Amino acid sequence: MKKLAAVISASLLLASAPSMAELYVGGKVGKSWLEDACTTATANCDDEASTAGAFVGYEMWDFLSIEGGYDYLGKFTADGLNDDKVEAFTLAPKVNLPITDDISLYGKVGGAYVKYGSEEDYSYLGAAGIEFDSHENVTVRVEYQTITDANNEQVRAMGNSATLGFVYKFGSNEEAAPVAVIEEEMVEEVVEETPAEPVVETKTFETQQLGSGNFKLNSTELNEESAAQLDELVEFLNTYPQANVEIVGYTDTSGAAEYNQVVSEKRAESVAHTLEEKGIDASRITARGEGENNPIASNDTREGREQNRRVEVTVPAFEYQVAQ
């Protein structure tokens, strides 16, 4: 009993922490097997089976969740088991380590209440796996799990499983963010004003900022809706052929810096390619990636990281002549 009490106490302490939490549910299926369940005296040993389970979790931070579940490990024949079921109710913290924006490793260490045939016992649990973000709300995980110290009066066994799982997260549906336009007043500076002579004026265009929602899911390619939102900029560039455009991509600090640099460059190039498709000459476009540099918000929060994943489109100020 002391084993599970320690796990529950730690889990409740973590669950009470303030956070931007998300609830999720999932299921899993796979292969299960017992270790040390049979001895040399066992007449008939069948220590392998199929397993299935369900779980519910509470994600408090990107890297930390609390997860509880039910595991049906299967029916076994071993010392103290005669085609009997082995089941477990589990509770454990889950710690994630991001590898990229869409892939992370994770581990769990906690406790389990095990029904081992006609016997019941409290045991320790450990698990490790890899998780893939396949959709805005759905992730896929591959996991190895072991439950130690499942015993009866004859043996002290370990219950192992290797499973494929699917997770559905509530409230994580990320709508495509519209193009955020930073309004800037047009500056018209009269450089020289002489009757009957042309007036030289300085002109610019409001800066456009594209967020991660303006790109296709898990892609550096600009989605169709956001590509259409560049039409106003294209019209401006066609009206003023002396104007040029600068495109700079940024990321947050999740994942490796080298990977983030490549993502920022590809997203900037995707916007540049869209402008070229709309008729803007490539010689008027400059595109580059700055990776994790120049954040506009904190990378310690989900909202801050979302703001930092952006592409800024700027038209530098230029001069043109107005006939009088």
TrEMBL record:
Entry keyword Transmembrane: yes
Boundaries of every OmpA-like domain copy: 201-319
Pfam family for this entry, one: OmpA_membrane
UniProt GO MF annotations: porin activity
Gene Ontology CC annotations of this record: cell outer membrane; pore complex
Signal peptide per UniProt: 1-21
Topological type in the membrane: Multi-pass membrane protein
Family membership: Belongs to the outer membrane OOP (TC 1.B.6) superfamily. OmpA family.
Protein name: OmpA family protein
